[in-house]
């Protein structure tokens, strides 16, 4: 009896990657579904006051009604929340985040690079960076309001102050991590200062810089409620604060979910940027 032997090619690297990615996605979706089911069961059978913990259905309802207009029994038309749609609150916050994070990133990278190439400047400025990094946003929001008022300027400055020390320290660490052997090898091969900067220093420091930008962006999102504490409408952080003071817990949780998902999407974009710009990391 003859047996036919069929040679099967081993799976390619791309196939293994797609299989691993699919497996991770299934685990992530499954964990979310289990969490939502547990949340619904607790609120459904736990006899919990909806003001303390609303059901996921109530939260989802808030996500819907705050993006459309509704008519009350008295005939009054109410659009969104606090006279703005939820997406308008999010857009206003994204504009503040964009300006604060953008300015903080530019200043942080320039300052960190300066500290990395100058030991004297590092000795003078580095303690102040550590001091600023340790300050909680709520600690100086009142001072910023005194200096800049309750408008968008104080909010952007707060987000800037939350971002730029972290980016500066990350850039400093990246510049200091460049091995001198690489620079000497490049000089031996005839590279000039500009070529060393482009081909050696920047690529070596880039992973630290992008990581610090990710951390700084996360800090900016964590400070957004503090930034929009006063006159934060429109703003998703201000809406979360006001709805909490009004015991509208479902809307508060809806705002928190929107903040978290938006921050997660931005972080994933930065991760993709990191993989694209520094594909050699971890290899």
From TrEMBL:
Main localization (coarse): membrane
Protein's recorded name: ABC transporter permease
InterPro entries: MetI-like (IPR000515), MetI-like_sf (IPR035906)
PANTHER family: ALKANE SULFONATE ABC TRANSPORTER-RELATED, MEMBRANE SUBUNIT (PTHR30151), TAURINE TRANSPORT SYSTEM PERMEASE PROTEIN TAUC (PTHR30151:SF25)
Membrane spanning residue stretches: 26-42, 97-116, 128-150, 156-178, 205-227, 247-266
Taxonomic superkingdom: Bacteria
Organism name: Corynebacterium zhongnanshanii
Membrane topology: Multi-pass membrane protein
Pfam families: BPD_transp_1
Similarity field: Belongs to the binding-protein-dependent transport system permease family.
UniProt domain ABC transmembrane type-1: residue ranges: 90-270
